[in-house]
Design a protein that fits this description.
With 63 residues, the chain is mostly helical. The protein is 92% helix and 0% strand. It contains 2 helices and no strands.
Length: 63
Amino acid sequence: MGSTGDKLKGKANEAMGKAKQGVGEATDNEQTKAEGNVQETKGKAQGVKGDAKDAVKKGVDKA
């Protein structure tokens, strides 16, 4: 998957994770809050992966 795909999936996972956390807060469900936190963290990592791919590509393009 390319850097743009990683970034898009990361943003989607972050948004879904935040939504799950909100549902968990509203329903006082600790498991849903925890799952949301994990999904949000996964999304942030995917975004970082996309940024790293961009950086590598720019470095290769300059060489």
